[in-house]
Amino acid sequence: MEKVDGILYRYILDHSSTITDKWLALREKQVGSIYSVDTDAEVEELLRKQNTLTIKTVTSALLEDKNSFIENMEHWATMVAKSRVESDTPIYEVLEALNKVRETYWDFITDHMLKDDNKIPKDTIIRWSRLINQAFDQLNREFTEQYYLLTQKRLLAQQDLITELGSPVIPIVDAMAVLPLIGEIDTHRAKEIMDTTPSKCISKNISHLFIDLSGVTLLDTMVAQQVFELISTLKLLGIQSTISGIRPEVAQTSIQLGLDFSQVSTYSTLKQALSKQGVKLYA
Asked: Cα dihedral angle (201, 152, 184, 180), rounded to 10 degrees?
């Protein structure tokens, strides 16, 4: 590291709290934002610590050991991205805040360079500009990548939960379970039910599944076909099926399509279906 680099490095770190104070002073009122000027003291302290780390990370680009900057950047991006995803902070707000950090950082360095007693050569100033701006650019890229990965992970987890809630196999007594289907069943959801229900039944040792359609708002012919295929698949696995809540018009359409539900027990309500199998319901 050149001597002037070391001087600047130590100077910035020694004054990191001052830079952070100036950055925090730029905040405005933003309803619901972590960066709002009226946020609570705990959040402000979190921002202060994270901004101090941002300054340390960027400044480490001045070090001779470039691995130090990479390690600091990866740690910073992972921590800040996790924090912003957990607080549901939009990515544009974070990038805007980072831009303000860059501006504050440069204002401070400019003041340092313009001091008469420093007499910093132009080529050094140009090199600092390149190093520091590249560092901020790398932080932006690393953060957006980590933010994307974390949000995708969250979306996948939410989708898995939605899928699970959309076709829950609920054990009741012995080896019996209920599959209560509620809401609209489109082709995509019908396929999800078809793909996941058999394995759920096997994993829970279910031998009799009650498929309740009374809460379904729309069940078209294509979905009726999927339900028929589900029942056929369960039968091949040795799992008996009972349908409840199927509407007359759907039953008529199924017959017209050649879907033979005659081998499947059907009931107008789930209560009737369970009672027929000796399952006692208590109020």
From this structure: 30
